[in-house]
Amino acid sequence: xxxxxxxxxxxxxxxxxxxxxxxxxxxxxxxxxxxxxxxxxxxxxxxxxxxxxxxxxxxxxxxxxxxxxxxxxxxxxxxxxxxxxxxxxxxxxxxxxxxxxxxxxxxxxxxxxxxxxxxxxxxxxxxxxxxxxxxxxxxxxxxxxxxxxxxxxxxxxxxxxxxxxxxxxxxxxxxxxxxxxxxxxxxxxxxxxxxxxxxxxxxxxxxxxxxxxxxxxxxxxxxxxxxxxxxxxxxxxxxxxxxxxxxxxxxxxxxxxxxxxxxxxxxxxxxxxxxxxxxxxxxxxxxxxxxxxxxxxxxxxxxxxxxxxxxxxxxxxxxxxxxxxxxxxxxxxxxxxxxxxxxxxxxxxxxxxxxxxxxxxxxxxxxxxxxxxxxxxxxxxxxxxxxxxxxxxxxxxxxxxxxxxxxxxxxxxxxxxxxxxxxxxxxxxxxxxxxxxxxxxxxxxxxxxxxxxxxxxxxxxxxxxxxxxxxxxxxxxxxxxxxxxxxxxxxxxxxxxxxxxxxxxxxxxxxxxxxxxxxxxxxxxxxxxxxxxxxxxxxxxxxxxxxxxxxxxxxxxxxxxxxxxxxxxxxxxxxxxxxxxxxxxxxxxxxxxxxxxxxxxxxxxxxxxxxxxxxxxxxxxxxxxxxxxxxxxxxxxxxxxxxxxxxxxxxxxxxxxxxxxxxxxxxxxxxxxxxxxxxxxxxxxxxxxxxxxxxxxxxxxxxxxxxxxxxxxxxxxxxxxxxxxxxxxxxxxxxxxxxxxxxxxxxxxxxxxxxxxxxxxxxxxxxxxxxxxxxxxxxxxxxxxxxxxxxxxxxxxxxxxxxxxxxxxxxxxxxxxxxxxxxxxxxxxxxxxxxxxxxxxxxxxxxxxxxxxxxxxxxxxxxxxxxxxxxxxxxxxxxxxx
Length: 882
Prior knowledge:
The structure is a single chain. By secondary structure, the chain is mainly α. The chain is 69% helix and 6% strand. α32 (769-788) runs parallel beside α34.
């Protein structure tokens, strides 16, 4: 039904008694008046300028508004023209404030989220209007009134337009008779790109505006801001606004997803109708799944638990009511009601808190560096469920708390306790899978096996770690082929790949990583804007590059690292939190790849880009521990690149900055074990450069700081091989510094303390080349320091232990140049010890073996003049002894 073009009827102005003015603009005003006929106060909108086109638009506005009969659309009591010819219409006089004013008064996110029902009311109103073939074209918070009694009313339909049947059917809208193609009408900050460009629009322009309004509610500010309307309009035309997740990181992820779909740059990518947008908002407000958001497994489990809360609450209500019966009869009903309400509230609050801890709190604590606080919360949660867990739902919740506590204990290095918690959780998940048959329990069982694999890997038990990872994979492969299960399967393949890489099984790791890459690539191909899938794909390609690096596959490494840059940029475009970190990491990985192919220029330029990107993020939010830690790690890696490319001053500066950032983080949270370890690593990095630049005294001070940090970790958790491995490495460096300073007795004391710890590592994993190399290095340094002390007997014993360790290494990696290089040093020093003991025959034999090793090393590195000189030196020593 098209609107009439007949002039509005004349109305006697004396029927209204004007008492004030509400608002005034350049062409019109709104007055407060008393309608004498019905004795009520109304708001009167009228035109002040005599203009034919303006009058026709005003009449159209009055007729459209009057035709839309919806509780959230302003009503029209009367419309007409005054005796002087100016049009007007009367409407209800509402008490309240505009939505933007309501937002401005809310200082916290929670307070602003409470305004979301008003946005839903707007969406419902627009769904109705669109069914009447009317679009608003100027939706914004200022055009929404929030009444004193909770009502929501959309006002100011001055730019509204009727859609013809053809326009509605084909999704286009032409000029309306008063506007022309290319004319920009509306408020720039809330209009879609096509409207900003002056193109015809349809109902999807209002969908965009509702999303922009929701963005304003969550962030407290318009999506776009600028010094002028022209500047805002230009920003709208040139790209999307700053993501809501960046401006307000705590915003509910479902609402963020709704905003992103509503405000898609392409109209085809938005909700097709305001009704569908309203339905998604209603789902969010009622705790249902939101169609715009891709849910993780954890989020789905949390919602499953919420749906099964009722039975346990009912039991608690009975207890409360029974207890109330013992009160005095005169107050019985009052007390029963009070106790029932309290029980319901307490139980609901407690379970909300525990579910929040399982799903959200870990991520929220990480930026502040307080993840360890989860331990005490998890223990309290377990105590709670030990007293309440009877139903399947409650047993599942308790198992989730066990898993959460296991993660905390693992991060703290308490591997035995972590493993025990994971096993207990796994038993419950297995039972629930059998009794309930619900997929989330089987999925959680698979995840817990993967976590057990990480515990075994930290213990150094690579075989058991592989078994747990394979078990996890088997469970997940048997789950239904859903998008969520495919995501989890890919994530588990990445965990397996990391375990395999740590164990030196690069070919198997390559297969696992490629399986994850294929799943992730397929998921992104199916939904190119899915943030979880883009993140998964980026992680998979990063690990694939790590695999190529470990394999020494330089031909594929650099191209793979180059692919990470566009993949990381896609994360930023998808508004993924910390997407910028992924881009910086991609630059860093490409820099390392360039070093591997000796492209110093590319390595330096990419390293500088990575450092600058992380520094910018760090300076933007220095209190964010996640960003600070990432910045520190980047400084370390860039420093390594600079060391390898002989930029020693730059490397030393980066390592010093890294140490300062890590010291600050450690001071914020001294119980964080990972940060303690990185504090040690940062000081050790400074020391290593000082050794290269011939300052062993200062290097010793830095290395001893590092040893002190890691020694405390090892003493607290002696079964965690991470701390043991790092401790022996640092003690070895201290011994090397002391030898360089000519203090062999102190060097022997430090190295003798490290040797048995290295031997324990080898005993745990006898074929681990890293462990064997550490042990043989310490034994060779003890041999050298004892020779400096002229204790030939002790030197020979140390050398014989080193030779035995070296023989084990040769059986695993025969012909290795590094083994040959170490063998030459060890056997030469054995010859020197034999000479000091008067054993000429033993000396000749040792020098001969040393010469054989030296020749192998020299052939493998023909450009190393020091190796060639050693071959000649050994020949001369043999000649002198003979």
